[in-house]
């Protein structure tokens, strides 16, 4: 028996490869499926099943393409209604994989079709669960993503989730391994652990949602407390996962067309495409195409694209570092952004060589910020999450979280102001968005709050309300 977690950090997503006696099951595959096919071939094995734990909202799964390439059936749990051929398993239905058995446990709550897959070894012993978004490490799936036309509320779904956990998962033995679909950083939960594998027994001890003495009403209240609005690309990804999508190779062929500076500029003007600059934030600050948006590949690229670009059908033109064009197109496609039209051949250097207009971001170091504060009382805008801001922040700073930057545009003054995040990545995204909307009087603080603290700038620390 072989069980391998294939974890993709930028999406905080876990896919799974299970093999026994030359037969393979893939659970929740990524959109680019060739690595799974190659792995099976290297092991002289055949992909027999493709299991989906639910209709994912935060990424486009590879189930449709993988089924076409391998002939393996796609399996969903009860209540699923995809537009393509699939096996809709009944609760408790068993699937034989070599000497192993995989059992579909219907666990509605995150969504109504959510299903946990229980793996039994060759001796019939419960070995592991692949819990999808039903159970995370330290958390459970948010119950507000599958409300349908007012029929179900988040409280209804949280109630289903409570029953699923108590009736299907918590009765399992403590030594069962938990393999979730996501880890820390995913928008599908609130407070996941940094680990990506654990035992069920430890989760019963550590996970607030699995407390044995918790009532349903208490569970519902805790699970829905503090939920932020889901990213705006989630419904579009659900639709793609339910109805199908273009083959990843077609998307790559379209998106990796090399365009000269002149052709790139013409395409931007003619199509209304967003110019997306995915280089390092320091390179973007030094020089970039006017009105381009920065979201760097070396950060949480795909989730930020999904959170900040409203329409997955939006045409996109890329400015990349050399040899990273295909990576950018691939990672865009993982969250359903398939309409990349091409990239700037020769990168930003070619744009400058062609004597095209360019812009820059006014940036200063944290030490310069500290020195300027003495004589220059400019407003400070912190684009970190509210929870980060409440923990510690620069004295008298304003909190305008990047996730909702477009809701705060009217708050930015006409006079100069400082902008920062935790380390410099998010504030550069914010800077690019503000500049694209004509707000150029910003000063970005390099290195963000970490550098600000190290420079000895006075900060306000969190004070627990109970001590006031």
The unreliable regions are: 463-468
Distance between the termini: 57 Å
Please provide the count of β strands: 24
In percent, how much strand structure appears in the residues?
15-25%
Helix content: 25-40%
Please give the order of strands in the largest beta sheet.
1-2-3-4-5-6
Task: Explain how this protein is built.
Helix content is 31%, strand content 21%. The chain has helices at 34-42, 63-70, 154-169, 200-206, 216-224, 234-243, 248-255, 261-271, 281-286, 301-308, 325-333, 347-353, 366-375, 386-391, 425-436, 448-454, and strands at residues 2-8, 13-20, 23-27, 46-51, 74-76, 87-88, 94-97, 100-106, 115-120, 126-132, 177-180, 198-199, 258-259, 274-277, 293-294, 316-319, 340-344, 363-364, 380-382, 392-394, 398-399, 417-420, 442-445, 459-461. The termini are far apart. The chain has a six-stranded mixed sheet, with helices on one face. It is globular. It has three domains: 2-235, 4-Layer Sandwich (Metallo-beta-lactamase, Chain A), CATH 3.60.15; 246-353, Oxidized Rhodanese, domain 1; 363-467, Oxidized Rhodanese, domain 1, CATH 3.40.250.10. It is an alpha/beta fold and 468 residues long. It has 16 helices and 24 strands. A hairpin with a 2-residue loop joins β7 (94-97) and β8.
